[in-house]
Predict the 3D structure of the following.
Amino acid sequence: EDQVTQSPEALRLQEGESSSLNCSYTVSGLRGLFWYRQDPGKGPEFLFTLYSAGEEKEKERLKATLTKKESFLHITAPKPEDSATYLCAVSRDDKIIFGKGTRLHILP
Amino acid sequence: NAGVTQTPKFQVLKTGQSMTLQCAQDMNHEYMSWYRQDPGMGLRLIHYSVGAGITDQGEVPNGYNVSRSTTEDFPLRLLSAAPSQTSVYFCASSRQGAGDTIYFGEGSWLTVV
């Protein structure tokens, strides 16, 4: 069965304290892996798409990496405005499967 | 720059009532989809469409109908609302398919009493 598992479920960091969020997946025929940011009361906002193992993408303080079984979202020197829920998703055929997300809280 | 537009934003229904959640996109995207988001469950795919006239079921289709008569619109119909359908509903679209970047609407909050 196709599955996407994100860890940890929640993470509290001090401002400037770097860390990583994990997304592990079991899916055959992966077409792409996506990272989204979701703020309370809002729809998910696209961050990155990764298509093949070894691929990396960066945007401001965020960097996403992909291996054959998992993806990491590294956050460097986070700020309070980076607080949000981060969602990982994989696409297979015509369907997208989401993980349950990691709630990230950055303390000033 | 509208993107994906959902209406209504909030709705309260009585058990057994029917209603339609509207979704429109102005990006000429072929792929559209509906998700529901519940606490502790993440986003779950209800129905999707790869183009006008084509729809298919996702992970949790029961109790919902969809149609895709135009490229722009993808309404979600609740035939006989149940309390278990209380949720936040998101419509999303992408240019070519599930392997392409998906863009989401702002969500519709539905409560069934």
User: Anything to note?
Assistant: The mean pLDDT of chain A is 94.
